[in-house]
């Protein structure tokens, strides 16, 4: 019997455990296995294999029972996820349904989640802009949050490292606010976007319009071919899962790469309950896992643990990892775990029309759009609000198709659509300020179907966000007017936080264990063999999309963790 136990403990023991198989967990798996560590990836959701796991990827529009729409009753059952633009008939199976995974909204918060192998890497819009020193130095300059323990130069080589492997398209624009990367050829701006770019450069010294950088392979390199991935075909059906591996996802890229090393064990349907702290050794020894179906509890053991369950779930797991030494959650002596959560302000849009270029239109599709990098409060504080916003931009032309007439005349009208006016759209991407009062905690009485406390979310906008939203509307309207665009309209959706899908913080990095949870290597100050490299680690939020930074920080931390392991320091 004793022998049997030893054997089962051995079977449950690895060099490293990674919690979560999404964008950041996939990178942790790749790096740790490549460096020779026998690695267990625990994923609460079902397995999704690259290609065979994408049931809708090759379906024609008429093959969908509801022609792509979500039926009303499903919308009613899913008031939260139903608000996400990508929750459509072709991709709904990759989203968490509201009823199955409840949480407590102390304030309205639309928490959009993907629980499966690959996580939200199957759903993301693939925008990958590097952060700059204006972002990493922001808190030190404004004093609105704790100083980052790192700067752009610390992450730059790791940005390059992950960009080359993932495949990022973009143009080298030479902008201080948006450092250039290792780019594959860029997609193109449309003629109206290009015209707007020229107008903006001629009228403003510090404002720019560029093609957004995105995780699509426009010219496969040997490293992409070795992954079995090919060129993006511009189908723009990415949210169904791409059979060509045209965009970066964990499923098509990092996870199969990790599997090829022979060092990976991937365990789907494994809900991590908590990290186990070994009181004698003063470090973590493993994790408690509940089988998603049988609800059976198992323990797995390892020398290092990477927590990559996506920002808020990582907070949940650490808050739930209580022990005699850490009664308030792992590494949480300062009581800051779960606090200083922040997000992005995506509330406002400005739209317009343009009468020019009447003889031109766009050709084909494009899986990305234009981008206006942050221009507010960059070199000096010039507004009443702190920090700034970037904006997405697109200008395209639809068809005006008459649908009246009957018989031959109807057919005639349908067959001869005319080009509509150019429509220009922009949406804001604002930085929000991490505050102690924006926090997540565990509900004391309510539990989920696996006996884990429900997460309580209390996160809100503030006056800074209101001012920033007004400024975005004013500035973009003004920029559009200067370009001669007409019918300029703006909307403030007043959507709840969360729908931006860029929640961050709660386990922030910092220099001082008194004011932060993680050090400059994403290592818990007080439990050195636990690393947090997803959005939970972010000290501030920048205006840029965050996932590329999670990838770079993960690769950097994994490199450090393995070196420390070899030195016997963790
Ligand atoms: C529609 C949409 C568009 C987006 N567009 C962009 C974009 O353009 N650019 C950008 O940078 N970001 C974008 N994002 C955000 C991006 O998807 C996330 O930032 C990114 O996926 C986060 O990576 P992650 O590894 O932290 O989490 P995820 O990719 O969500 O992976 C976390 C994994 O952990 C698993 N997990 C959670 N809890 C547990 C547990 N207890 N036990 C075991 N496993 C667990 C989950 O099931 C999941 O698979 C978008 C997201 C969505 C939904
Ligand atoms: S646009 Fe590119 S990445 Fe997206 S589905 Fe098409 S081929 Fe794949």
Automatic annotation (TrEMBL):
GO MF entry, a single one? flavin adenine dinucleotide binding
Where does the record place the Glucose-methanol-choline oxidoreductase C-terminal domain? 434-553
Glucose-methanol-choline oxidoreductase N-terminal domain spans which residues? 224-322
Q: Does the keyword Ribosomal protein apply?
A: no
Query: Record's superkingdom?
Result: Bacteria
Q: Does the keyword Endoplasmic reticulum apply?
A: no
Q: Which UniProt keywords apply?
A: FAD, Flavoprotein, Oxidoreductase
Cofactor(s) for this protein?
A: FAD
Q: What's the family?
A: Belongs to the GMC oxidoreductase family.
Stated name of the protein: GMC family oxidoreductase
The protein's organism comes out as: Rhodocytophaga rosea
- What's the source species' lineage? Bacteria, Pseudomonadati, Bacteroidota, Cytophagia, Cytophagales
């Amino acid at each position: 019997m004793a022998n049997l136990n030893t054997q089962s403990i051995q079977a449950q023991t690895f060099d490293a455990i990674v919690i979560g198989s999404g964008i950041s967990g996939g990178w942790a798996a790749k790096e740790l296995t490549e460096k020779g560590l026998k690695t267990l990836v625990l994923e609460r959701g079902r397995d999704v294999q690259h290609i065979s796991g994408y049931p809708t990827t090759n379906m024609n529009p008429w093959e969908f029972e509801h022609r792509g729409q979500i039926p009303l009753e499903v919308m009613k059952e899913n008031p939260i996820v139903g608000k996400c633009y990508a929750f459509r008939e072709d991709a709904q199976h990759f989203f968490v349904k509201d009823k199955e995974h409840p949480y407590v909204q102390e304030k309205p918060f639309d928490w959009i989640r993907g629980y499966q192998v690959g996580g939200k890497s199957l759903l993301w819009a693939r925008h990958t802009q590097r952060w700059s020193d204006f972002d990493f130095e922001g808190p030190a300059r404004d004093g609105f949050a704790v100083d980052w323990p790192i700067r752009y130069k610390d992450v730059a080589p790791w940005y390059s490292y992950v960009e080359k492997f993932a495949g990022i398209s973009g143009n080298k624009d030479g902008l201080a606010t948006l450092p250039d990367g290792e780019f594959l050829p860029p997609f193109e701006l449309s003629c109206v976007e290009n015209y707007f770019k020229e107008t903006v450069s001629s009228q403003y010294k510090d404002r720019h319009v560029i093609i957004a950088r995105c995780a699509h392979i426009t010219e496969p390199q040997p490293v992409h071919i070795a992954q079995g991935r090919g060129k993006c075909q511009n189908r723009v059906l990415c949210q169904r899962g791409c059979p060509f591996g045209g965009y970066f996802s964990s499923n098509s890229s990092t996870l199969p790469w990790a599997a090829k090393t022979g060092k990976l064990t991937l365990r789907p349907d494994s809900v991590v309950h908590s990290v186990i702290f070994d009181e004698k050794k003063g470090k973590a020894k493993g994790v408690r896992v509940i089988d998603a179906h049988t609800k059976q509890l198992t323990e797995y053991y390892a020398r290092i643990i990477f927590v990559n369950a996506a920002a808020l779930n990582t907070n949940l797991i650490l808050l739930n990892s209580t022990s005699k030494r850490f009664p308030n959650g792992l590494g949480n002596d300062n009581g800051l775990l779960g606090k200083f959560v922040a997000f992005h302000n995506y509330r406002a849009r400005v739209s317009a029309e343009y009468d020019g270029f009447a003889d031109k239109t766009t050709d084909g599709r494009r899986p990305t759009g234009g981008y206006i990098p942050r221009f507010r409060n960059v070199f000096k504080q010039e507004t009443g609000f702190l920090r700034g916003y970037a904006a997405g931009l697109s200008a395209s032309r639809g068809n005006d198709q008459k649908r009246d007439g009957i018989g031959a005349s109807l057919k005639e009208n349908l067959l001869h659509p005319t080009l509509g006016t150019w429509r220009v759209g922009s949406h804001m991407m604002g930085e929000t300020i991490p505050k102690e009062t924006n926090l997540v905690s565990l509900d004391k009485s309510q539990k989920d179907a696996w006996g884990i406390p429900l997460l309580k979310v209390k996160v809100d906008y503030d006056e800074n966000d209101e001012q920033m939203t007004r400024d975005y509307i004013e500035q973009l309207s003004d920029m559009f007017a200067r370009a001669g665009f007409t019918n300029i309209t703006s909307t403030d959706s007043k959507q709840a936080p969360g729908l931006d899908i860029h929640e961050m913080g709660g386990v922030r990095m910092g220099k001082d264990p008194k004011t932060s949870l993680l050090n400059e290597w994403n290592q818990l100050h007080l439990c050195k063999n636990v690393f947090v490299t997803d959005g939970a680690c972010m000290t501030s939020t920048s205006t840029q999309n965050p996932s590329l930074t999670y990838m770079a920080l993960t690769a950097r931390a994994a490199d450090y963790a393995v070196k420390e392991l070899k030195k016997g320091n963790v």
